[in-house]
Design brief:
Layout: H1 2-21, H2 25-34, H3 40-56, H4 62-69, H5 72-82, H6 86-99, H7 102-116, H8 121-128, H9 140-148, E1 151-154, E2 158-161, H10 165-177
Antiparallel strand pairs: 1-2
Helix pairs in contact: 1-3, 1-6, 2-3, 2-10, 3-4, 3-5, 5-6, 6-7, 9-10
């Protein structure tokens, strides 16, 4: 049982890195503010960024980020899944398995299968990111942009970041093109 929880947590972190490294991620984040309806891939990316920030925080900024973004991943992934993003439903499956909530995991697995149109969602999700190589953790600029997002405390969704994607999309663009993402030379 512990191995299954650890595997789900590891796969979720890997999926979040792949989502953040997608070349379209900054555009999807920007689209969150550009449309009246939820942009499913933007919500997927924002959930992934929140999840990575919560799980990669250092001692200096970790407690503040964990507190301000604690409910963000689940909330944004639920919105994305509701808008038809099977990757978000799969992320919720992994999140639920990693927390040991098998009932909720089965619910999100069914949703992911329905949205993907077949049962092998894991392979479909990974195929969408075929060839991507996660680089590393989040850059300080992304952490700052996430930490500066205003948060709301909603009775249904908990503490989540509000949508002000401009600075975050810019930080994500710099993350993708800056020296922090280039492999170190041996």
């Amino acid at each position: 049982m512990v191995a299954r929880l650890d595997r789900a947590r590891f796969e979720l972190l890997a999926l979040c890195h792949l989502v953040v490294e997608d070349v379209q991620a900054p555009g999807w984040i920007t689209a969150l503010a550009d449309t009246p309806a939820i942009e499913p891939h933007g919500a997927l990316v924002l959930g992934a960024l929140c999840h990575l920030a919560v799980h990669e925080g250092d001692a200096k900024d970790g407690a503040m980020i964990r507190h301000s973004l604690a409910d963000g991943p689940r909330t944004w992934w639920q919105l994305a899944a509701g808008a038809g993003c099977f990757q978000a439903a799969y992320a919720l499956t992994l999140l639920s398995v990693g927390r040991g909530d098998q009932r909720e995991a089965r619910h999100w697995q069914r949703q992911a299968c329905q949205l993907a149109g077949h049962r092998d969602v894991r392979t479909t999700v990974l195929a969408a990111y075929d060839g991507f190589q996660p680089t590393h953790g989040l850059c300080p600029a992304i952490r700052e942009a996430l930490a500066s997002l205003p948060t709301s405390r909603d009775p249904d969704f908990g503490r989540t970041p509000a949508v002000d994607p401009g600075p975050l999309a810019n930080a994500l663009r710099r993350h993708r093109t800056g020296p922090c993402c280039r492999p170190a030379m041996p």
